[in-house]
Amino acid sequence: MVKGANVGLTALSENVGSVVVGLGWSSATGEGDADVSVLLLDGDGKVRSDDDFCFYNNPVAGNGSVQLLGKTPTADGSEDRISFDLDAVPQEIDTVVVAASRYGGSRFGELDDLRLTLADGAGDGLVRFAVEEADEVSAVIFGELYRRSGEWKFRAVGQGYASGLAGLATDYGVDIDDDEAEGPEPEQEHAEAEPQAAAPEVRVPAQATAARADDAAPASPDPVTPPKPVRRPRTAKKKVTLPRTVRKSLADNESWRSARLFPVSALKSDRERETRATSVVLSVMAQVPEFGRRLTAGFGAPAGRMETYTEVTLPHGESPRRPDGVIRVERAGKLWTALVETKTNGNALKPDQVQAYMDIAARRGYEAVITLSNDVALEGSPLVDVRIDGRRKHKVALWHLSWAEVVHQAQMLIRHEGVGNAAHAWLLQELLHYLQHENSGCHGFQNMGAAWVPVRRGIDDETLCQGDARALEVIENWERLVRQVCLRLGGELGQKVLPVQRTRRGSDPRTRRTELADHLCEQGRLNAEIRIEGTPGVLAILADLRTGKLRTSIEVPSAEPGYPLSRVKRLIRRLAEAPADLHIETLVDGPSPGPRGTLERLRPEPADIVPKGGAQITGFRLSLFKSMGNGRGAAETGFIRSVDEAVDRFHAQVVAQVEAPARRSRSEEPAG
Predict the structure, then answer these.
(1) CB of 642 within 8 A of CB of 650?
(2) Phi, psi torsion values for 656, nearest 5 degrees
(3) What does the alpha-carbon distance between residue 610 and residue 62 come to, in Å, rounded to a whole number?
């Protein structure tokens, strides 16, 4: 679509009761990011209350009809997804505005390939809109969903906004908390002030939403508007979260175990694990609406009453089939149904089984088949290949969930975002305990695959050649492991954690992985980068299969004023609790490397990493090294366990100490 164009959704697909909008962008450095927000407006172009403002601290709005699904990595960067159950949007709402904003003085001109996509309930793409000319603005309205004569339509807006999230929210009627921002940390007191933007910014007036014609171009932006002071949007109502610290036990001794709602001690076979895990997850989904909606919104399910079933028998030729579960959601008399196929303990999905469920779903008019296993799905590399009968009018979507993603969503709700009441929080806590128990078999990606050992041996004896299919398998499993690390760390921190993919725009995921496999054959190294919200740089992971070493590192920019020695001393002070074997390298302008040393040696002699000859310091690279596990699994000596431990140690002992003091986690912002 082009800017200003509009289209009726029913003209594009018959399955638009629920749609998913994606906002995407990419960055050359891998560090650029933005926050998505959605505003539900009445006929006057205003929100009815603060609850109609959906953003990072209020991810669900409109009685569950709008839900932020979070970020997902793509071939071109990352994409924020938003689920809209259009049939459930309150009748008082005429327009839904989809926007994104940047923070900390950043502008959208620092990001590439700004785009909006819209997909129907089956996951088929319907709309793509590229946003241009957003260089000097800190917020952008990407598009609008609005009602016309009982039909939902979409308009491509693509207009810049002057004063970021706070200004956008205010102009649409959201109350803003006027508390003054907290003062700077001691480390920042002498930092240089950020220069004010020299050029005036542009914004779209809120009134333009209410008064427009279908075929008219978007309203012209206001003339020069001075930036508003940065203020904090109010958060949603207080919700229940569980305390991080556990109360002292009343047990007589440590051998006593708390009674659990979902016991795991008697699980012995894979079939028992699959049956129990399916029943546990589906029952909690039905009883905790926030959790059930979180897991199904991205699959096109509406926001309605959910019922879940196990031990279901469905006819299929001469032999009936028994899927592991069924999910049914009812909204306004309409029914959405999905079959569920579950695997635990690292067992792979069976293509013939999934194909049979796809055929059954198509015949019975079901909307989706959901597979749930320890594996992690990758873009462009399906876990199961199924045949789609193009002659059938009814389309069935095939979706996949990893157990790691289920755990991540439960952690986000009970530890960071909160749920409606204490009973729901307790249910999620019991679910989390079950999934993380060693007997459950629901531990996420736990095996680097059959190619891991042959590839390692081929690298050791230099017999691994480019084009070897086994190297590509290792690259795919490495990507799965990195994505799982991001899910686990993000759930623990309550922050966005995403893998960084530095690829050419429009590159094919399969081609990118083939190139990485060739580099593995040539260099014997696996590389990855992850971006953690609130940290000053990108956390890099390097697994050197030749030396058997894991390196975790981060580059910390040095923008503070002062003499070089003063900058070095400030860094050393901030790393007071870091391990003594931390390697510090000074980054300088020019091709020559800067001086380096261990923290143990530099504490008494910080001047040793001051560059000679007056070279300008641009930053510091902090690194920790660890021996790499040999096994392909997640045992104590396995490669997966060693990567998890290396990332955890580096984040806790290094990254957490050098996080930018001025940028707190948004999940920790106080409510208005």
Answers:
(1) no
(2) -60, -25
(3) 56
Task: Please name the residue ranges forming H helices in 132-269.
Answer: 164-171, 207-210
> How high is the pLDDT of residue 207?
37
| Residues contacting residue 264 through CB under 8 Å, at least 6 positions apart | 276, 434, 437, 439, 440
CB atoms within 10 A of CB 348: 12
User: How many CB atoms neighbour CB 7 within 10 A?
Assistant: 15
Distance CA 483, CA 490 (A): 10
Position 367 scores a pLDDT of: 93
Q: What is the pTM assigned to this prediction?
A: 0.80
Distance (Å, rounded) from C-alpha 599 to C-alpha 155?
Answer: 56
**Cα(30)–Cα(667) distance, rounded to whole angstroms?**
22
Is residue 345 within 8 Å of 373, Cβ to Cβ? no
Q: Which helix (H) or strand (E) holds 357?
A: helix 351-364
* DSSP letters spanning 554-569: EEEE----S-HHHHHH
408 closest CA partner among 370, 376, 440:
376
β-pairing, 538-544 with 525-532?
Answer: antiparallel
For the chain, how long is the longest CA-to-CA vector? 83
Alpha carbon separation from 480 to 376, 409, 484, 630 (Å, rounded): 6, 18, 6, 18
How many CB atoms within 10 Å of residue 668?
Answer: 11
List the chain residues with pLDDT less than 50: 178-232, 236, 660-672
Tell me the β-bridge partners of 373.
402
Residue 471 has which token pair?
A: 């190297």
Q: How far apart are CA 304 and CA 405, in angstroms?
A: 22
